[in-house]
Give the backbone structure.
Amino acid sequence: MRFSRSSISFSSARTCTDAARIVASVVQVPPEGLRALPEHGNVRTAFGPTLGGGPAIVTRVSDTGIAGFDLYAERAQIGALETQLAASGAAELDPETAEVLRIEAGVPLFHRDMDEETIPLEAGIEQRAISFTKGCYVGQEVIVRVLHRGHGRVARKLVGVRVEGDKVPRPGAVVRSGAREIGQVTSATVSPALNQPIALAYLHRDFLAPGT
């Protein structure tokens, strides 16, 4: 069975309560059941009668810094699904705005802010990407060594930075403290909230504290 994620995002839903209400209007799961899902947790369910009751998958996400949900449906249902979501209060979120929200929230994007060589602790995603209770998995030895021998300290870490001036740096731009190179930019944009350029960048661990 082929699924495609709906392109509707909940830009009009300012809280998880709003998003859960909107999603519950199209699937057979009550709002409280959706709100109870953990981050990146999912539930397989079905759409309501007005959408033909076909299979659906709902995943709890916060990729833009706002708690919300991804909806997966068969491709043939996407058009009707978007129409009903919009009628329930959802609004389409354009990719440019989603990118600004993502960077403001400090959410790393795969193949831009991290890749197969990135240690989860470097990207700050260990709470949602690592199990500390399951058995052996690929990369576990590295994680255990960092946590138990290095006390969780890594050589670099992804952080949000404010950019001096009005020029948005390109990915790969060098971050300096005085004359010293201390890191590299991975994502950047202009933040409407701060009215200045901001970026996500990997910085040397000695320069992670604000003001360093």
Observations:
- Helices lie at 16-24, 31-35, 78-87, 95-105, 120-123, 126-129, 140-148.
